[in-house]
Amino acid sequence: MTVHRMTSRAFGENLVQAKEAAKEGPVFIDEEGQATHVLLSVEVYNKLRRSRTLLEMAERWNGGDFDFDPPKLDFRSKPADLD
User: Fold this and answer.
1) What are the extents of the domains in the chain?
2) Cα–Cα dist 42/26, whole Å
3) In which family does this protein belong, per the annotation (predicted)?
4) Check: CATH 3.40.1620.10 for 4-60?
């Protein structure tokens, strides 16, 4: 998947080019150097709509138990230096 960037001015002047680029991947549209919009193909948009978060899947879970063995975190903390 290719990601494209365009200024809002270039987007307005080259709509056909932007739509063609969106077939390859998202097109980020920038205003004053910051992305403000994203142009996606309908296919990619529909895939995103169908994807669910882990919480949404858990809320809809109506099956039985399942094994879940998360990895143990291995980090050491030290007290904060408040001086």
Assistant:
1) 4-60
2) 11
3) Belongs to the phD/YefM antitoxin family.
4) yes
5 and 30 Cβ atoms separated by less than 8 Å: yes
Q: Which helix (H) or strand (E) holds 37?
A: strand 34-39
The per-residue pLDDT for 54 is: 73
pLDDT digits (tens, 9 = 90+) for 13-27: 999 999 999 998 899
Can you tell me the mean pLDDT for 31-54? Answer: 87
Contacts of 25 (CB under 8 A, 6+ apart): 1, 2, 3, 4, 44
pLDDT the model gives residue 64: 65
Residues 6, 24: Cα–Cα separation, whole Å: 14
Main-chain phi, psi angles of 45, to 5 degrees:
-60, -45
> Which strand ranges, in their side-by-side order, compose the sheet holding 34-39?
4-7, 27-31, 34-39
